[in-house]
Specification:
mainly alpha; Amino acid/polyamine transporter I; 437 residues; globular
């Protein structure tokens, strides 16, 4: 029996830590390129934050109803046909590795200008650095080295401080040429809805992490009051930081230049402190990225372990080295998927589209499971989302719209995602035959 121990402040800080990653230092360049106007640009961030609140509330109820370890993937196996559940979970195994290598690419983009010569500033240099980072961290994890909670908390605080420090550029740097920004992509104003849909792909990638509230629904004291307050406060803090930093990007760099300036945070730091500020910000962001990748290398093999216990993956995924306590096969499999994703998809933009094609479908399916859970558990007395079914229906509609936006804007990334998804069906049949006993 799980005893509730988390309070309002605890849950708020958990939400902030789950969501704020490194996307905010890179994805605004993608959003600016697609938006064309400041109105669409900022509307995408506000709408993304609001829908993330809806999603976090829904996942909190799901977690309260299914307080099981590995809760997110168990939602599918509990509520859906085993074949569909496996196809979703299989797809997410692949996209998690793509997300991690996407983060490594961002780290390479930030650190390469500081340490590598001009001849290695292109795609080749980025791949070399990304592969090197992954292999070094993988080697450390194979040796049994683990990052502790204090290290991760320090890195999270570092990101918040870095965001606030970059925002001071609003007051210290010369504003961008607004005349140039105003004339950028003038025809975009006539097609704001498709532009908004495409912008939401990168925005939701940046807000990703709120779905992990599924793991805390049974751990919160006075859940009916604490969960909505903690989630709304946490997302409000995140949205405030994101909007403030994006406002600084637009004011200092200019909306028209942001699409051609992937190193946005370093540019802001450079506007405050010159070249040294640019280099310092690049190094700090790279350190933060190392922490994220290392966490992915630790956590994803654990997901494989839980799925192998349920017979959804071969037994090799739950084998643990008795000396180092490392899941060597699972870790090696995850690292291999990361490297394959790097060379198959290439750019960060491609990876974002590919990941969100699967993730948006999976998130919409998970929230749709709430209708099934309410029907199966009519006497449930724990946390329940208010304004049901409006909140889950809006969330599902918007997330499916993101899936359509990926298919419309990047058909090749959508095709990769669709192939991975449907490849799960024959794998399900194979594993069911092998592990039926």
């Amino acid at each position: 029996m799980i005893k509730p121990r988390l309070g309002y402040f605890d849950l708020t800080m958990i939400i902030v830590s789950l969501v704020i990653g490194i996307g905010i230092f890179r994805t605004p360049a993608i959003v600016a390129e697609q938006a064309g106007t400041a109105t669409v640009f900022f509307a995408a961030w506000v709408l993304g934050g609001l829908i993330s609140v809806f999603g976090a509330l829904c996942f909190a109820e799901i977690g309260a109803r299914l307080p099981a370890a590995g809760g997110f993937y168990r939602v599918f196996s509990y509520c859906y046909h085993p074949a569909y559940a496996f196809m979703l979970n299989w797809s997410m195994i692949i996209t998690n590795s793509a997300s991690a290598i996407g983060v490594a690419i961002v780290g390479a983009e930030y650190i390469n200008p500081v340490f590598l010569p001009a001849s290695l500033q292109g795609e080749t240099g980025i791949r070399i650095t990304a592969v090197s980072v992954v292999l070094v961290l993988a080697a450390l994890n194979f040796a049994g080295i683990r990052t502790g909670a204090r290290t991760q908390n320090f890195l999270s605080v570092l990101k918040i401080v870095l965001i606030l420090a970059c925002c001071t550029a609003i007051f210290t740097a010369a504003p961008a040429d607004t005349a140039t920004a105003a004339t950028a992509q003038p025809e975009a104003t006539g097609h704001w809805l498709p532009a908004l849909g495409v912008c939401l792909i990168a925005v939701f990638f940046t807000f990703g992490g709120y779905q992990n509230t599924v793991n805390y629904g049974a751990d919160v004291r006075d859940a009916s009051r604490t969960i909505p307050r903690g989630i709304v406060t946490g997302i409000a803090i995140i949205m405030g930081l994101y909007l403030l930093l994006n406002y600084a990007y637009v004011q200092v760099i200019g909306l028209d230049r942001m699409g051609d300036t992937p190193l946005l945070a370093s540019e802001l730091a450079g506007a405050i402190l010159g070249d040294r500020g640019f280099q310092a910000a690049s190094v700090l962001i790279f350190i933060s990225i190392l922490g994220f990748i290392n966490t992915s290398l630790i956590s994803n093999p654990r997901i494989y372990y839980a799925m192998a216990e349920d017979g959804m993956l071969p037994p090799a995924f739950r084998k643990v080295n008795n000396r180092t306590m490392v899941q060597e096969f699972a870790l090696g499999f995850f690292v291999t998927l990361m490297l394959v994703s790097l060379f198959l998809l290439g750019t960060f933009e491609k990876i974002v589209n590919y990941v969100m094609f699967i993730d948006s479908l999976a998130l919409a399916s998970a929230v749709a499971a709430l209708f099934i859970l309410r029907r199966r558990q009519p006497g449930f007395t724990g946390y329940r989302v208010r304004w049901f079914p409006v909140i889950p229906v809006v969330f599902i509609f918007v997330l499916l719209g993101v899936t359509v936006s990926v298919a419309w804007s990047d058909s090749s990334a959508a095709l990769y995602g669709a192939v991975i998804f449907f490849a799960g069906y024959p794998l399900h049949l194979l594993f069911r035959r092998i592990f039926r006993s």
